[in-house]
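Format notes (please read before filing issues)

Several people have asked whether sequences and structure tokens are stored in separate files. They are not. Every record keeps both together, in the order shown below: the sequence lines, then the token lines. Line labels are part of the format and must not be stripped during preprocessing.
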Amino acid sequence: MENTVKTGFVLAASSRTSFPFSQDAPLSKNAIYDILIKGGTIYDGTLTEPVTADLGIIGDRIVELGKIEGKALRTIDASGLIVTPGFIDVHTHCDLYYLKYGSDAPSFRGNTNFVYQGVTTVVDGNCGLGTPDTTAWLNWVNSLKFGTNSYHLAPHGAIRQKLFGEQQPEELNSSQLDALKGKITESMEAGAVGLSTGLAYSPGFLARTREIIELAKVARMHGGIYATHIRDESGRDYGQGKRGVIEALNEAIEIGKRAEIPVQISHLKLMAPFNKVSANQILEIIDRARGEGLDITADQYPYDFSSTFISILLPNEFVAKEGIKETYKTPEGKRAIQRAIENVFSYLGPEKILISMFKKNTSYEGKTLREIAAIEGRQPAESFADMASEDEVPMGLFFNQDMKIVREIMPRDYVMTGSDGWTVLRGVTRPHPRCYGTFPRKIRKFVLEEKILNLASALRSMTSLPAQKFKIRGRGRIAKGHYADVAVFDLKTIRDRATYLDPHQYAEGIQVLLVNGIFAIEKGVATGERGGRGLRRA
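Then the structure lines:
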């Protein structure tokens, strides 16, 4: 039954997908496993020293660790390779792009751009965006057998938008607040892992701190967390010594303390204008709150440029949902947009704004705003005003960060790895390369090449740390009884390949990826098999 070949894979003539077992029952050396991973260097997801050992899997569970003599239906020789828990991406927008594109494309159903990174579980509904219906999303994931497991956050902005429509109230009255609390309750009871806000987006930026505190209390009552895209991630000068990111972090901490809820800072960063704000200033605020007893953590993507709708560059009074208010789509309104964006150009020039997705004119994708203006024979502000006024506003890449600050944030032991990416239809638009490369990039560039942090710490930031924070039970560690979400990769070859001009390139180096015991990747190639599940808060 068993015939192992070095770095080979063996499938018996007959196979099975499940096998009942008792976690506590001892297994004899004659036990037959579904999958046996032999001789890999196991990093269990914690800071424990790695060990060379075997891993026995039956059905969707890890049932044995150590020196295993039993037989298997399928055996993997992992000698010379790293064996680790499948990666958990706590900051994705997989549900948002399902709403846009549906489920027809195979690359969507397989969540393939994540699978090639070694990701087995995603958390979506971030930044207050995405599907407002937790039950519908998780049921769809289960009916489809998505490529990865999916947890969901109740997205404040999407729920607020659905509830109040185009006439969004700034300060909610008591009945409106009760209605919103009721919707958050529904989402939490459906299994959401927490509440997310996008306080830099419409309608999230309308929400007062009091509103968020009350909603966060609802999430806390159901055992959830509060994840936030804070109001301002830049060093913008608010006067009297106040800086945008500092004020926004303090608001998030106030919400956490007053709602008595764990806080997750989404994609922690500093964006232009910097105004001499340092990484230390940002980290000291978080360190102080942690020292005072607040469970506050963060996630980060390992790039120095961001991506979202280009309307994010304008002051809030211009913006409605992802686009521009109708009153600013007139000739006079567009002149106001031009004046506003000229102010932005003082610290983020048009050569640092690259269009990544533009449904009306795909030929502009991959070009900077300065290049587009030259093609049109106009000023960049004029081109921007017209594009921002489209019904489907373009998305852009913004080269607005300092890699020095990215490096200084990364080693903190409370900073997880999160892509801020989405499920990609391969070859469609020019998405941020983080959609394809976040996790291998962090290992290759910042562990192996620059040695910003060690491998065990990096893997912890991708596995057990997010599992602990988001209360993801039975995942994020290599341990008996845990689900068989397992990545096997080669340190010599793991790397990202996606670039901002050529993003549709899968990462390399993941040799095997199991999602609930199903082979998502075998011999470095996606199998098309899908083992993902729509998961609910424990």
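For reference, the curators noted about this record: The chain has two domains: 87-304+401-471+483-515, 309-398. The CA atoms of residues 200 and 231 lie 5 Å apart.
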